Automatic annotation (TrEMBL):
Swiss-Prot/TrEMBL keywords: Hydrolase
Keyword Hydrolase carried by entry: yes
Residues of the AB hydrolase-1 domain: 18-233
Cross-referenced InterPro entries: AB_hydrolase_1, AB_hydrolase_fold, Sec-Metab_Biosynth_Hydrolase
PANTHER family in UniProt: AB HYDROLASE-1 DOMAIN-CONTAINING PROTEIN-RELATED (PTHR37017), ESTERASE_LIPASE_THIOESTERASE DOMAIN-CONTAINING PROTEIN (PTHR37017:SF11)
Any single Pfam family the record assigns to this protein: Abhydrolase_6
GO molecular function per UniProt: hydrolase activity
Regions annotated as coiled coil: none
Protein name: Alpha/beta hydrolase
Database matches in SUPFAM superfamilies: alpha/beta-Hydrolases
Length: 246
């Protein structure tokens, strides 16, 4: 007898579109290992290259990429990218969110103020963040390897320090006007040794959002690079769960 696939079985396919959003001071190239792992598993993966000139510009850059997706999409954000995906995630193609050592503010909140409530090592290191005369921020080259990427090879961390994308100071203090985690399922990765965002703040965000949470002990803020297989596994699992639920 010929078996006929049921509608439920058809819906149990994992989401195949994944959009990756980087954080401040870096660019989309940091996702390369995660990208390659997911592509090898059949996912269609796109990296957003946000300009970091304003929060609105970064959200619009993400929406632009979401518009190009051909179906349901999992939206992933690292660090400041978490604020971006929280706002951009109300896009109708987004069916789930993944936060990777990321901020996840609520409507009316901004990550700068929230970070002051639970200071990170960075927040308690005077002079680590520098500012250009026209109001763009960056990490001092000496601070980047030790605070942002201590678990990456030193040469790689030094290169990332020298290739930083300065971020407009306002991106950290712009209140959100939408919070997609209220209505869409989410997953969160806590970097256990994060010095850029306090790991307890990450836990607070994910608990409040009801996120499925994974803790990667010993991981730095560069967890998406230093622990790419574990990060990719969380994204793959989220895609499977969202696909099964829709």
């Amino acid at each position: 007898m010929l078996a006929v696939a049921t509608p439920l079985a058809a819906r149990a396919e994992p989401i195949k579109n994944v959009v990756l959003v980087h954080g401040a001071w870096v660019d989309g190239s940091g996702w390369r290992q995660v990208h390659d792992i997911l592509v090898s598993k059949g996912f269609h993966v796109t990296e957003v290259q946000e300009p970091e000139t304003s929060f609105a510009a970064d959200v619009n850059a993400t929406r632009r990429i979401l518009d190009l997706q051909d179906g349901p999409t999992l939206l992933v954000g690292h660090s400041y990218g978490g604020s971006i995906v929280t706002e951009a995630g109300i896009h109708p193609k987004v069916v789930g969110l993944v936060y990777v050592a990321a901020h996840a503010p609520d409507v009316g909140e901004d990550e700068g103020a929230l970070g002051k409530r639970m200071p990170s090592v960075l927040g308690q290191t005077p002079g680590a963040i520098a500012r250009t005369p026209d109001g763009y921020t960056y990490l001092q080259s000496s601070a980047f390897p030790t605070l942002f990427a201590p678990d990456l090879p030193r040469a790689q961390a030094a290169f990332e320090a020298s290739s930083q994308v300065p971020a407009a100071a306002e991106v950290f203090t712009t209140p959100l006007s939408a919070a997609a985690w209220h209505t869409k399922p989410s997953w969160g990765i806590v970097a256990g040794s994060d010095q850029i965002i306090n790991p307890d703040l990450e836990r607070f965000y994910y608990q409040r959002a009801g996120s499925h949470t994974t803790v990667i002990e010993g991981a730095s803020h560069s967890v998406y690079e230093s622990h790419a297989p574990e990060v990719a596994a969380v994204i793959e699992n989220a895609a499977q769960q969202v696909g099964s639920a829709n």
